[in-house]
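hey m, so remember when u said the tokens were messed up on ur end? i reran from scratch. heres the input so u can diff it against urs
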Amino acid sequence: MREIDIVPKPLQVTPLEGAFELGSSTRILVTESTRAVGKYLQEMLQPATGYPLAVTENPDGNGAPNAILLTTSKADASLGEEGYELSVTPGGVVLRAPHPAGVFYGVQSLRQLLPPEIESSTKVNEVAWVAPAVIIRDQPRFRWRGMMLDTGRHMFPLAFLKRTIDLMALQKMNVFHWHLTEDQGWRIEIKKYPRLTETGAWRSASPRLGEMEEPDGIPYGGFYTQAQIREIVDYAASRFIKVVPEIEMPGHAVAALASYPQLGCTGGPYVVRTS
């Protein structure tokens, strides 16, 4: 039996005999409240397995053979907003949680129970998609489980931000601390104050990257438009991650003062540093 190794470590893990094997005929059963998580699971499993698993409504919240049930029905309310109970048996998988966030975190545990090849972005052949039989009961120890990414000093394209959020979700993190302003650059579009991005965001913290542009159109040393900010906020929310922006005022505000020097104590000139 493969060792049950999940990060972060669940509160309770009870190994059982046998294993559940995911196959092309496996169904994902959802209720109205878990439909979005079911679609996420379908999209997460398909690249490596090649299985376009069916997502089927199951209003009564009961499991079925060769199925993965995701439901908030009949769940233990004491598990709270982010807790879940995951039962994996040879016959099927049942994941219950009082709220959709808990269902999502339970999906991450199921994901980690599968062979590591499940993370491949392309189809992997000759792998048995088997999860060891187990009962996991879990809820987070901390309300704030976050990671900070500094785009004030170094710009990153949207694809990188989304990949970062995906990896946070795998680890059941729930807060993306987005550092958007710094002495070295102002990275968020404020339409009322256009010079913040005309002057305060034109340089990169690394001159070598200053002229490079990524495929999604964000130049290193530039800024994120309001539409791009909303896109990242929505993407994070779909993975139950809250975005907390860091906008440093009045400290660490050289980029802002270079744009509006009248706001400073000396009147400037202020120069955006590159390191």
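this time it looks ok to me. Residues 203-213 have pLDDT under 50 and may be disordered. if urs says something different then somethings off w ur setup not the seq
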